[in-house]
Amino acid sequence: MEMKALALILAVMLANGACGGEPTGCPAFTVERPRPHGGTVLSAKDFGLSEDSDKNATAINRALAEAKRVGARSVELAPGTYRCFDEPGIKIEGFRDFRFEGRGAVLVFRRPAEYRGQPQSELILDKGNVLVRGCERTEVRDFTVDWDWEADPLGAFVRCTARHEDVAAPEKSYVELTFVDWEKYPKYPEPVPVQKMMAMAEDRAHFRAGGGFSFGQTEGHFGARNEWVRPNVLRVWPGIPMEGRNQNPMVRFAASPQNNLRRVRQFEQGGLYRLQHCYYGKNALNLDGNRHLAVRNVNVWSTFGMAMVTDGKSEFTEVENLRVKPPTAEAFAAAYPGVKFRPRPVSSTSDGFHIARSKGYFRLLNCLWTLNNDDSINFHDRFTIAVRGGDKVLDIVNRRGAEYFRVAPGAEIELRYPNFGETGFRAKVTRVVGNRVYVDRAMPPQKGQCFLVWDRTYGTDNVHVKGCVFEDSGFRNIFSPSNLTIEDCTFRRVNGYPIRFIADYRSDLWCEGMGATNLVVRNCRFEGGPVLQPKWAAISAVCVTPTDWDVGKVDPGFVAGDVLIEGCTFVKPTGPALDFSTGRNVIFRNSTIDLAGIDPAKWPEAGKVKLEAVAGSRVEGIRHQR
């Protein structure tokens, strides 16, 4: 028994890159497919699915309810375009050994925004266009999610055709935006929500340098003041909120007369922009608490919110051929015969794939993200910060409160010091009352401003990303798991960090990431520098604590401990290839940095390898081309 136990411990250590060996990344794992059984196959058409109906979510849910009642092995849709304007969306819940077969169906959603003065971080999974919850050995596949742009466009391409500056009365400064694809915009004559704008290239397929503007992110929030000048020309006061409309105090919209003038001056006369009416919303696919779930061959042409969200006790998930990308003219014509094609400015109005919490074991194969807003990938686990309210009491002091952390009685929590250092303390939660958490053991004394509180129910570790493309994507790719492999991927004209290893907490915003170690990046290609922040690195690592707190030294191996980067190509970087402000045992080898055409006077850090802060690094076999 002792030898078996020792062998098991050694295997685990090797899998985590320990024992002085090289990092190994994600271990092998299997996502189980649905097991064959004698259940029937139901067609949603027999339950009212019809291209003539606006209530196809209800029809699909009827088929799913009957499938659960009779123990069916599959529900099938049919080729066609189906409007799903009814509430509450499609719900695939509580199935085992089951397939949801789209058969190429295009599911078109149009659902009104809701306003609750909610925080930016709110996730209401029940509201998803497609919710998959509590399923085991289930496959969801072969369909497209879209939005009704003819009646309720999520955004538009606009050109700044006029700019008025008034120094004496800066609140009267404005810009005029022409909707280039419309003679009469569908939302005319009512004022429209203006939540986000980004500078775009003339080909409409790429972002360009020129900045962006944020006017608030939450569902139902209105944003900047505006009025119509003509049916396709909108006048916008970019630093003045719209009076009489929902303005969420929980979001950051820096409204003031001087900021209005400053923003007007930032607009480029004649410049093309992407205007978004919404940001966070109901999301295309919400995955909650599933085991052995596969999502295959799903297109997200557009969605109000994130393309895909995972939360809860989800584990063993495989996502293959997810395409978060606006439709081509040909695909649009097939789905909407007789409808004029207009290029779409945005796919998902928020993140491409967001993991708030999970139990890990994720595989992403041959996926694509383009023209999404915000992060394409954001994989982390939420935690919170709290102060000692008694021997067995914690008071959450993060402004987002218990609703953000969402710890439940019975969960095991771990306390850490503000510098992420271990306290050695774990306890069970006995109850939660408001922002007060009660535990079953007396806690150690508090050192510094707070404790970091982790819910050890969760851990988004053991992640494999292979053959994916991040092209003209909205912002960053955030990876906070341990035991991570990213291989054979392409990062092309990403707006922010192509790969960012991070743990980050703030007293008023997010608390994300519980350590990232044993990381492998292999045979990836990075083209160009980040569009919005061209001086940013292709691969970076950072551990972020509140800037006004003195938390002491952070263990350099907490984020980016044991990293192997090999066989990668960096083409025309404008910032560093690597920039690690933290890390331990980092190996960078057998890679190419192509600086042909890069002006070193303009981009002095282009292609640099910045590992000075790393505790132990090795760089070898790096080829520089000019």
Structure overview:
With 626 residues, the chain is mainly beta. The strands form four sheets. A 14-stranded parallel β-barrel has the order 16-18-21-30-33-37-40-43-41-38-34-31-22-19. Strands 4, 6, 15, 17, 20, 23, 32, 35, 36, 39, 42 and 44 form a twelve-stranded mixed sheet that branches. Strands 11-10-14-8-9-13-12 form a seven-stranded antiparallel sheet. The longest helix is centred in the first third of the chain and has 15 residues, at 56-70. The N and C termini lie far apart (59 Å). Residues 1-19 have low confidence and may be disordered.
Task: Summarize this structure briefly.
8% of the residues lie in helices and 40% in strands. With 626 residues, the chain is mostly beta strands.
Residue share in β-strands: 35-45%
In what order do the strands lie side by side in the largest sheet?
A: 16-18-21-30-33-37-40-43-41-38-34-31-22-19
What would you report as the Rg, rounded to the nearest angstrom? 25 Å
Most strands sheet: 14 strands, parallel, barrel
- SS field, number of helical segments: 5
Features:
8% helix; disordered N terminus; 12-stranded mixed beta sheet; 14-stranded parallel β-barrel; mainly beta; 626 residues; globular; 45 strands
Give the secondary structure arrangement, pairings included.
Blueprint: H1 2-15, E1 41-43, H2 56-70, E2 74-76, E3 81-84, E4 90-93, E5 96-109, E6 130-133, E7 136-147, E8 155-164, E9 174-179, E10 196-200, E11 207-214, E12 224-230, E13 233-241, H3 257-266, E14 272-276, E15 285-288, E16 291-300, E17 308-311, E18 315-320, E19 323-324, H4 329-335, E20 353-355, E21 362-365, E22 368-369, E23 377-379, E24 384-390, E25 393-396, H5 401-405, E26 412-416, E27 422-433, E28 436-439, E29 451-455, E30 463-466, E31 469-471, E32 477-479, E33 484-487, E34 490-492, E35 499-505, E36 511-512, E37 516-522, E38 525-527, E39 539-544, E40 559-566, E41 569-571, E42 578-580, E43 584-594, E44 609-610, E45 615-625
Parallel strand pairs: 1-2, 2-5, 3-5, 4-6, 5-7, 6-15, 7-16, 15-17, 16-18, 16-19, 17-20, 18-21, 19-22, 20-23, 21-30, 22-31, 23-32, 30-33, 31-34, 32-35, 33-37, 34-38, 35-39, 37-40, 38-41, 39-42, 40-43, 41-43, 42-44, 43-45
Antiparallel strand pairs: 8-9, 8-14, 9-13, 10-11, 10-14, 12-13, 24-25, 24-29, 25-28, 26-27, 26-29, 27-28, 35-36
